[in-house]
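Aim 2, interim progress: modelling of the D-MYO-inositol-1-phosphate-bound target.
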Amino acid sequence: MNTEIKKACEIVRQAGKLMDTSDLEIEQKGNLSNYVTDADKAVEAFLTERLTGLISKSEVLGEENHHRIHDVSDVWVVDPIDGTSNFIRGIGFSGISVGLVKDGEPYAGIIFNPYRDEMFVAEKGQGAFLNGKKITVSDRDFSHSHLCSAMCLYDKRYAAPCFRIIEEVYMQSDDLRRMGTASLELAMVAAGRAELYFEMRLFPWDAAAGFALIREAGGVAECLHYDSFPLDRPFPVIAANTPENFEKLKEIVCRHVPTVPYDERITL
Ligand code: IPD
Ligand code: CA
Ligand code: CA
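Predicted structure of the complex, ligand included:
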């Protein structure tokens, strides 16, 4: 594994210490169910300063601050606390997600769950690891799969097709999980703890690290209806442990979501 990625893991681990729930200041962001805390902001500020020092000319695209991206090839894509709602409620399933997107494609991913001290890391061509041990996707077929999904929490206009997709997959698979932290759920697919993943509307910071992990763990992860990984907008995401399961999930999702049903841009 590249030295910069190893150093980035240490920086992410240190940032985990800032995930402190005592005296939390909680603000609502635009939408009823969307929150940000002072801890989200502190983690992002810490990571922005440290990560940009690791690779010259690299920049950060972060959820809370959307640092402007010039035409650079290395972009750290940062979700300072993924699963903020779980974090506020003390559920113990939230994490820090840091993807490194190189020339427009997810190249490396670091996802840290401080509650379980689980550090997931992957780098292109080097494999995927959990606390230093190699991980691979499971070989379960569709009927024995667990689906991780959600119902488009921050834009409930799209909740109905999500429920229809979930119902259709649920009837043909083993079970469903709605755990509230997209990046850790993608990491679960990489680690063989779940097999299928669908979300209608993820942002680059939710998905970049998870894509690198799943691909290096032998699975498939794609932005539906996009050939590459957009850094300027939200997109639907499908992922699976095997190409067969991916195609089956994609067929179901595409019937309900034939095109991206929104046209939004991240405001920098
Ligand atoms: C959210 C969580 C949630 C997922 C949403 C994400 P946040 O991120 O990962 O599980 O369903 O799509 O936006 O707001 O907690 O960083
Ligand atoms: Ca997130
Ligand atoms: Ca977040």
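The domain at 142-256 is CATH 3.40.190.80 (D-Maltodextrin-Binding Protein; domain 2). The chain has a mean pLDDT of 96.
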